[in-house]
């Protein structure tokens, strides 16, 4: 979650380098798609490098190469602060991608205000995204 920027984007790029199939969630469709583009670029570079490298022959005569891998990235726009949006997006992921084996529950908001100067709506939004959403996503 929160894959469109910051730590969420960095996590996505690192998991891509480790050949993971990724499901990216963010409230911002455009920034989430930008992250997916970066991930696809990493996947392409890895595929090109694998194709360019001559396979080495192991002692038993077998080629010593990584097996082909179907690297993919899926993007979903999801407001994790809204429980029903989380539940419906999770159901779409199950149907379209399958079960998730690793979850990086990273989405978060910061109000930028001192607590006593923070409007109630911002406090509620902060609690929904930074606390409740983690339970809903899990």
UniProtKB/TrEMBL annotation:
<protein>
    <submittedName>
        <fullName>RDH10 dehydrogenase</fullName>
    </submittedName>
</protein>
<keyword id="KW-0560">Oxidoreductase</keyword>
<comment type="similarity">
    <text>Belongs to the short-chain dehydrogenases/reductases (SDR) family.</text>
</comment>
<dbReference type="InterPro" id="IPR002347">
    <property type="entry name" value="SDR_fam"/>
</dbReference>
<dbReference type="InterPro" id="IPR036291">
    <property type="entry name" value="NAD(P)-bd_dom_sf"/>
</dbReference>
<dbReference type="GO" id="GO:0016616">
    <property type="term" value="F:oxidoreductase activity, acting on the CH-OH group of donors, NAD or NADP as acceptor"/>
</dbReference>
<dbReference type="Pfam" id="PF00106">
    <property type="entry name" value="adh_short"/>
</dbReference>
<dbReference type="GO" id="GO:0005811">
    <property type="term" value="C:lipid droplet"/>
</dbReference>
């Amino acid at each position: 979650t929160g894959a469109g920027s910051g730590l969420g984007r960095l996590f996505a790029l690192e998991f891509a380098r480790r050949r993971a199939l990724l499901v990216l969630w963010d409230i911002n469709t455009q920034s989430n798609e930008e992250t997916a583009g970066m991930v696809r670029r990493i996947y392409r570079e890895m595929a090109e490098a694998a194709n360019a490298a001559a396979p080495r022959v192991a002692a038993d005569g077998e080629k010593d190469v990584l097996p082909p891998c179907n690297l993919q990235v899926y993007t979903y726009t999801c407001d994790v602060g809204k429980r029903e949006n989380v539940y419906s997006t999770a159901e779409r992921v199950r149907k379209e991608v399958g079960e998730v084996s690793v979850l990086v529950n990273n989405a978060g908001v910061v109000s930028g205000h001192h607590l006593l100067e923070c409007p109630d709506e911002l406090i509620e939004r902060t609690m929904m995204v930074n606390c409740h959403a983690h339970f809903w996503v899990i």
